[in-house]
Write the structure tokens for this entry.
Amino acid sequence: MSKVHKFFKKSILKSLKLLIIYVFLSGIAALIELSLLYFFTSVLNIYYIISVIPSYLIGGSIQFILIKYFNFKNKSKKIIKQASIYLLVIAGGFLLTLCFMYIFVEFFNIWYLFARIITIIIVLVYSFNMHKYFTFRHK
């Protein structure tokens, strides 16, 4: 096996491992977020688009801690810088979330929790790549 082939194989395996751990940890944050979304919307009768805001912020905060320390194993002390980049990334994810939620619920009549699960999967791809290459990149 050539050195180039070994390098790419190792790189692909490392990225795949990061993605699997990212999906697992983000899944924990997503379950908390979905629980809060259900509580705000179905129990407190808050409009689902408004309910997305606090549930997304709380879930995002939990995700930041989980992926920084347990996924990317990032020990950087530049937490303010990373948190700022993280906030920009999740702001983009939040805009995508609002757009997809509205489209799925209002135009396709999909139940709001199922629409959120679909949206989480879509935004997960965007978020993983942004965090890997920008928020927690290794120099």
User: Anything to note?
Assistant: The chain has one domain: 3-135. Helices lie at 3-43, 48-71, 79-107, 112-135. Residues 3-135 form one domain.
